[in-house]
Here is the input.
Amino acid sequence: MAVQRRIDLILESVRRLLRMGATPNLLNLLQKQHPADLARIFAELPERERYATFNVLVEKNGKLAMEALSELGPEAAAPVLAMRSAEEIARLTQELPSDDAAPLIDHLGEELRIAVLDLIRPKNGPGVSELLEYDEHTAGRLMNPNVFAVAEELTAAEAITALQAARDVEMVFYLYVVDERRHLVGVVSLRRLLLVSPDTPLKRIMTTDVYSARVDTDQEEVARQVASYNLLAIPVVDRENKLTGVVTVDDVIDVMKDEATEDVYRMAGVSREDGALTPPFESLRRRLPWLLVNLVTAFAAALVVGMFQSTIQQVVALAIFMPVVAGMGGNAATQTLAVVVRGMALGELTWANARQAVIKEGLVGLGNGFGAGLVGAVGVFIVTQNWVLAVILLAAMVINMFVAATAGTLIPLGLRAAKIDPALASSVFITTFTDVFGFFSFLGLGTLFLRFLYQA
Here is the structure.
C-alpha cells in the first residue's frame, strides 16, 4: 500500500508538471525513479500523456526510458515506440539487452519491424534478429544470447580473470564450461570457484550433470525447471548441445506472472491482450465469440428445463429453488477447475495420477454437496414447510456437486489430451454440465416424487 501511495503521488506530480509545461522539473522527477516504477506510471497515464512523458525522458536519458518501456510490456510499449522513426527505434533498442529488445520490436507493425531489424547491428554475437527466429514463448525467444562461458582447460584463477574482463553479459550466477566446439560440458557456481585453490582446473570442480533447456523448450517448462531445482539461471542449448544463451530468474518471474495472468483470463474466456484500457471494439471482438459459445450451451440447459414444464406448473416452488442447485454446482466446479488447471500447469497432475485426483475430487464433491445441501434443505423447509422439497434439494445438490467435481477434473485432462488449452475451454463445458445436471437432477427428482410433494 505504501508503494502504491508513492506511485499515486508521483503520478499526480507528473500530470501537474505536464499541464504546466515544466519540462526540466518533470525530467528531474522521472530520472529519480526506478524503471519498474516508471512503467507503472506509464501504464496509468492516458495515451497522449504517456507519449509526452516518454518523449521528455527519452531525449535526455534513453537507457532509463527504454528500461521503463521494457518493464511496461511489449503490448503497451510498442505503440509508444511506433510513433518514432525506424532509425530512432533501432538506436534506442540498442540500450536494452537483446532478450528485452526482441519483444518490443516483435510487437511493432510488420513494415516498421522489418525496417528496424534491417538497421540493427548486434554489438557482440547473436542479436535481436536471431532471437526473433525462435518461436514465441520458447526458451530461445526468452534467453539472453550474451552468456558468459569459459573453456574447460582453464584454471580457477584464469576463469576469474576472464570474468573480470567480461563486458555486456547477463547477470553471472554460474560459470558455464564449454569445450572447443562450444558444447556445454559443465557448470561451476561462483561460490565454488572462489573457495578452491587458484590453480585448480575447472574440470575437477565443475558439475557435469547440468540442468539445461533447449531453444525450443516452452517457457512454462523453463520456469518449472528453475522453480523445481532452485536455480538462479538456466543455460539454453541448441539441438547439438551447444550453449546459445541463458535464462535468468528475473525472466522466469515475468514468465510466471504472464502465464498466471493468461490462465486466469482464459478461464474467464478473455484474451490476455484485453486490458482495462483496451479500445471498446477490440474488447468486444475478443469477448463476444466465447459469450456466443456460452449462449449455445445455455440453450442446452433451457431444453432440460423445458422437459419438466408440466412439473414446474404444478409445483412452482421448484422453479424458485432450481437456480440454487445449478449455481452451487457451478461454484464447486470453478473451485475444482482452478485446482486441476494449476496442478496441470505445475506438472503435479498427469494421466498417471489422474485416477487418484478424480477419486479425491469426487469425494470432496460429495462432501460439499451434502454439507451445502443440508444447509440449503433447512432453508427450504423454513421457507416452504415442505420436507419432501427440502430432501429433493439436498439429493440434487449432492448429485450435481459430485458431477461438478468429477467433470472439473476429467474435462481439463481430456482437453489437454486433445491438444486444446484446458484453461481456455474448460469453463464453457463445465457450465453446461453443472446447469444440465443441476436442473435435471432437481426437476427429475421433483417429477419422480411429485405426488409426495402434494402430500407434504
